[in-house]
Amino acid sequence: VIYDGYIDLPSGYMVDGELLYTPDSVLVYGSKSSLDTLYFAHTATDTISGIISDTIFSVGMKKIRGIKYKPDNIAVSVPVDQFTSKEVDVHVTCVNLPPNMSIKFFPSTVKIPMLVGLKRYKDIDATCFIVKVDYNDIKDLKESITPIRIFESPDYVRTKMPIPSEVEFIL
């Protein structure tokens, strides 16, 4: 099942995780030719507005001529949390560096600004993020400055561009 709607939250709130569908699949009945063109069961287009806490709502399945769903409504569970900003300092690391080489980054840490829900604010620290530079991307550079990338971050935060977004390096 795919929710074909829009969740419009007030300022200062965000969806904090995955939407959960109950049931997560439906039985679809129709002619063979109708079923051959159907790959997913979509809900009716819907907009939910103004929710400020975890919410469950019911939505009907998208009406398609010659198709019937069982059940024809599903429950959608939306985890919502108030968000705030947070920053963590994360060390820059290098991958694919040959064992006989060493590298220094300036600065050696970058600040990762993010938006995070209040429920998980205390769970976030520098160990939740991995910031890397790939040696294969810099080995042939004429300049000794390179952009950095966030390789890992929790899916429940919205990261912004690292500060600084580039670092200098010495091989």
Could you please describe the fold and organization of this structure?
The structure is a single chain. This protein has 171 residues and is mostly beta strands. 5% of the residues lie in helices and 47% in strands. The protein has 2 helices and 16 strands. The protein has helices at 32-36, 135-138, and strands at 6-8, 13-15, 20-22, 27-30, 47-49, 55-60, 67-70, 73-78, 80-95, 104-106, 109-117, 130-134, 145-147, 149-152, 157-159, 166-170. Strands 2, 9, 11, 12, 14 and 15 form a 6-stranded mixed sheet that branches. The longest helix has 5 residues, at 32-36. The protein is elongated and about 65 Å long. The termini are far apart. The model has no long low-confidence stretch (mean pLDDT 92).
Spans of at least 5 consecutive residues with low confidence: none
Helix content percent band = under 10%
Rg: 23 Å
Envelope shape: elongated
Percent of residues in beta strands?
over 45%
| Average pLDDT taken over every residue | 92
SSE arrangement, N to C: EEEEHEEEEEEEEHEEEE
Number of strands: 16
